């Protein structure tokens, strides 16, 4: 039984999570000014347009910052996972996403390290985008 | 633009014991701190006509504290939804209310059973709504985990080390040793800091603030009314609240923040100093919001005490000790006094400017800075005796 926090998709974010389930990393793109944005939101923060489309991106990026969680909170949920890495990743297409770096020694993570998305189907309905070094 | 220099004053402070288990309700804590602040000022509770607080669904509303105090007529009662960023905003809100004629004598308080009751950032929410859809599912949940990400970015950009942060923890504990209010008074060394349990790299246990039960309060009134009260007034020279673009709605709503090696402080500095009519070089003592050691660095840089990237060196060599050029967190801060969410920094600044800080008194302290906040938004005050 998966016991970690799960995203509850809403009107703005549902396409993103559907994309992950289908193995595609999607970012929102403003129809009016073409600015890309993530996390998804109804109004473009640049031009306030509500018209947007979803674009599949390469899934390639670099590590902007990262942490190594060593003390699990809650302990009964993450006790088996520590140490684990959470990173802010700058995608090649110019938006930033938070995720885990997996398949990597936590002490080997470095700034600007190149990473690639991989999809982790954690439940029947939720797939999380995670990243591994390339 | 702030145009109220020296027109308002803090005339009373009050607080409860700070502990891990108060054994009483948050309402009782708030009421005790507020009554103590009114008594300290020499103002009858009947003269209080406004209350302002801030909370994260972990406290009691201003109106309920007014009722418990027996305030006969409440004319201003506001509960700000906010964390540490609001700890100085409550005072600016009180001033704004008095200036507008809505109230005359306004109490600002923060009250919580933050250790025995509702612990902030505990991470028990298994359904990630809103912005947390993009953070919590990756196990990015607690406050230390949030701030560690900002600290790491500073390390990447400027080469900041944990030993440099350790100086901050050691210095503040040294101050707390002289503070009877402080929850942690046992001095520590840099070796103790290095040996502390790793929590979330780059933070160890001693980089992280306490969790506390307790309350504190400050009483704000006009400079005119302040003249004939019990203590010499502590005047508000200036104040500011704000941050940069993409402040977001939550601790983790920082994904669009442009540069995580800087925080709100860089964005309020110009307004703060211009309004107060003084600069960083004029500050005698500063009580800086220290939810984490690193938070102090980003604020010192943002507020112009040093250049971006210079903060880790700036705090070395005794500069921030009580006998240094810029004494910081003379009460021990959130790291060692208590986590009353930053309002306890204002209480300490008032002690210092009144000359009431006992063995931790900074001689001849005339101008004090208080700050509140660590990430995308925050507030600050310049106070003088
Ligand atoms: Zn647009």
> Using DSSP, what is the number of strands of chain B?
12
Looking at this structure, what is the CATH superfamily of the largest domain in chain B? Thiolase/Chalcone synthase
Order of strands, main sheet of chain B, comes to 3-2-4-8-1-9-12-11-10
Binned, the helix content of chain B reads: 25-40%
Main sheet properties of chain B: 9 strands, mixed
Q: What is the CATH topology classification name of the largest domain in chain B?
A: Peroxisomal Thiolase, Chain A, domain 1
The SSE string of chain A, one letter per element, is: EHEEEEHEEEE
Query: In CATH terms, what is the fold-level topology of chain A?
Result: OB fold (Dihydrolipoamide Acetyltransferase, E2P)
H/E topology pattern of chain B: EHEHEHEEHHHEEEHEHEHHHHEE
Tell me the overall shape of chain B.
globular
Q: Give the averaged pLDDT of chain B, no decimals.
A: 96
Terminal-residue CA separation of chain A = 31 Å
Globular, elongated, flat, extended or rod-shaped: what is the shape of chain A? globular
Rg measurement of chain A, Å: 16 Å
Let me know the average pLDDT of chain A: 97
> Poorly predicted ranges of chain B (pLDDT <50, ≥5 residues)?
none
Number of helices of chain A: 2
First-to-last CA distance of chain B = 23 Å
Structural class of chain B: alpha/beta
What ligands does this structure carry?
A: zinc ion
């Amino acid at each position: 039984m998966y016991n970690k926090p799960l995203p509850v998709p809403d009107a703005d974010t549902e396409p993103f999570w559907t994309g992950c389930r289908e193995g595609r990393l999607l970012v929102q793109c403003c129809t009016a000014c073409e600015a890309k944005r993530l996390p998804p939101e109804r109004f473009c923060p640049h031009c306030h347009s509500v018209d947007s489309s979803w674009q599949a991106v390469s899934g390639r990026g670099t590590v902007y910052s990262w942490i190594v969680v060593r003390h699990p909170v809650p302990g009964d949920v993450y006790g088996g996972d520590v140490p684990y890495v959470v990173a802010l990743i700058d995608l090649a297409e110019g938006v930033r996403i938070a995720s885990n770096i997996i398949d990597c020694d936590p002490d080997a993570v470095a700034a600007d390290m190149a990473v690639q998305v991989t999809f982790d189907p954690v439940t029947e309905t939720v797939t999380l985008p995670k990243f591994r070094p390339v | 633009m702030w145009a109220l220099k020296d027109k308002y004053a803090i005339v009373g402070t009050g607080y409860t014991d700070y502990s891990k288990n108060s054994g009483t309700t948050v309402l009782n804590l708030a009421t005790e701190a507020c009554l103590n602040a009114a008594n300290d000022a020499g103002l009858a509770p009947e003269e209080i006509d406004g209350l302002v607080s801030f909370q994260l669904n972990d406290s009691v509303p201003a109106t309920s504290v007014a009722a418990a105090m027996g305030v006969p007529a409440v004319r201003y009662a506001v509960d700000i939804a906010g964390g540490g960023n609001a700890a100085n905003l409550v005072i600016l809100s009180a001033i704004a209310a008095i200036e507008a004629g809505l109230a005359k004598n306004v109490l600002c308080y923060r009250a919580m059973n933050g250790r025995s009751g509702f612990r902030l950032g505990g991470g028990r929410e298994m359904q990630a709504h809103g912005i947390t859809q993009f953070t919590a599912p990756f196990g990015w949940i607690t406050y230390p985990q949030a701030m560690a990400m900002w600290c790491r970015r500073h390390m990447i950009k400027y080469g900041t080390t944990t030993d440099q942060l350790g100086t901050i923890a050691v210095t503040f504990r040294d101050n707390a040793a002289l503070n009877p209010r402080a929850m942690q008074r046992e001095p520590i060394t840099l070796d103790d800091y290095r040996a502390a349990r790793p929590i979330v790299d780059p933070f160890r246990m001693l980089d992280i603030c306490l969790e506390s039960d307790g309350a504190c309060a400050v009483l704000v009134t006009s400079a005119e009314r302040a003249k004939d009260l019990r203590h010499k007034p502590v005047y508000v020279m200036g104040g500011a609240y704000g941050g940069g673009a993409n402040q977001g709605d939550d601790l983790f709503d920082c994904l669009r923040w442009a540069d995580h090696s800087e925080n709100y402080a860089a964005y309020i500095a110009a307004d703060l100093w211009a309004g107060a009519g003084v600069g960083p070089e004029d500050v005698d003592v500063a009580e800086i919001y220290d939810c984490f050691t690193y938070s102090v660095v980003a604020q010192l840089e943002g507020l112009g005490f040093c250049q971006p990237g210079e903060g880790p060196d700036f705090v070395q060599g005794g500069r921030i000790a009580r006998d240094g050029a810029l004494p910081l967190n003379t009460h021990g801060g959130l790291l060692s006094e208590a986590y009353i969410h930053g309002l306890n920094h204002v209480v300490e600044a008032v002690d210092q400017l009144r000359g009431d800080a006992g063995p931790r008194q900074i001689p001849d302290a005339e101008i004090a800075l208080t700050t509140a906040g660590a990430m995308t938004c925050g507030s600050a005050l310049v106070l003088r005796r």
